[in-house]
Amino acid sequence: MSAFEIKKRILEVFCENGKNFISGEKLSRLLGFSRAAVWKYVREMRDEGFAIVAAPRRGYCLKSMPDKVLGYMVAAGLDAGTIGRGPIYYHESTGSTNDRAYELAERGAPEGTLVIAERQTHGRGRRGRKWISPREGGIYASIVLRPAMEADEIPAVTIVAAISVTDAIKKMCAVKAGLKWPNDVLVSGKKICGILVEIKAEPDTVDFLILGIGVNVNADRGELPAEATSLKAETNRHVNRAELLRHILRAFDRDYALFTKKGFSASRTRSRALSLVLGKRVRVTGQSSPIEGTAQDIDAKGALVLTTDNGTTRRIFSGDIILPKI
Ligand code: BT5
């Protein structure tokens, strides 16, 4: 068993045990390895920031966890099908988790491989834009996906992931979150999450996708762009990032399984219900020239359907929406 798996199992046992002490003997029996091995990994976990008390005759007790998103913290208690089941790579700091995941995918990393970082030095948005990624301020994660799909089905995966993030943050923080087509999650009209999907494809096959998820969790407003917010700024509470990422992975595991079986139709109704743009006048940039009109619908491929002022209907596959100020 790998060190990752052992520490994950130790953490699961601690979590099931609450604030009670558990004897070294019981721990070693439950986990199926020696007390010396338990002690070795408990020490490693302490070095990684876990406050684990060891008392003679009483055993061990987990007092607190570090404010980190270590791979085994995320994996503990995660009973996912594909997403989060593959290897998890953890970085204190990296350029961009999407770049890291891309390299791994090129070397054959399986679907569900996850890359996590506490901070990114070159976090990226779409079209060469930056994603501000303060240390321990958010979730910066990328997942390798290998869907057997036609290339024109792929853009909708961005919307599917945005729905999963929306569900997860609502579940954990009880905030009102909605979608701004195609890749933003907004809370109080401000951006709290952005999704970046990058594709490696041949003319007729999709090799793999990298799904990048950036969520502002505990960052202060001052660390973020003016048009952004974080869960802490919205709720005045510090949020456990490992737990939130687990919620996101669970939600996406479910939504992605449906997406690969049934296509976008399974998520389309939800994407409309959560949309903050449908029925509104919008301006869309990122095309050869900006388009203005009323957002009517999100179609079966995830495209935005817009009625322009002269009455024509346009389907837009990518771009940036500028909403009127509310
Ligand atoms: C996105 O691009 O929203 C995609 C963001 C994806 C970030 C994740 S983090 C893990 C993975 N690794 C990466 O390197 N990236 C992914 P876009 O729609 O182009 O929006 C970018 C714009 O959002 C910027 O130009 C800023 O205006 C704004 N922005 C930058 N950092 C932000 C932040 N932390 N919160 C909210 N808005 C931000």
Characterization of this structure:
- The protein is an alpha+beta fold and 326 residues long.
- 33% of the residues lie in helices and 25% in strands.
- It contains 9 helices and 14 strands.
- The strands form 3 sheets. A 7-stranded mixed beta sheet has the order 3-4-5-9-8-7-6, sandwiched between helices. A 5-stranded antiparallel beta sheet has the order 13-12-11-10-14.
- Strand 6 (177-180) and strand 7 form a beta hairpin.
- The protein is elongated and about 80 Å long.
- The model has no long low-confidence stretch (mean pLDDT 95).
- The structure holds biotinyl-5-AMP.
- Biotinyl-5-AMP binds next to helix 5, strand 5, strand 8 and strand 9.
- Residues 96-98, 120, 123-126, 129-132, 140-142, 183, 191, 194-196, 212-214, 216, 224-225, 228 line the site of biotinyl-5-AMP (BT5).
Quaternary organisation of the protein chains: single chain
- How large is the share of residues in beta strands? 25-35%
What string, H for helix and E for strand, traces the elements in order? HHHEEHEHEEHEEEEHHHEEEEE
Tally of alpha and pi helices: 9
Q: Give the strand line-up of the largest sheet.
A: 3-4-5-9-8-7-6
The low-confidence runs, each spanning 5 or more residues with pLDDT under 50, are none
The value of Rg in angstroms is: 21 Å
What hetero molecules are bound to the protein chains?
biotinyl-5-AMP
Distance, first to last CA: 55 Å
Mean pLDDT: 95
Q: Helix- and strand-based class?
A: alpha+beta
The level of helicity is 25-40%
Largest sheet: 7 strands, mixed
Globally, the shape reads: elongated
The overall strand count is: 14
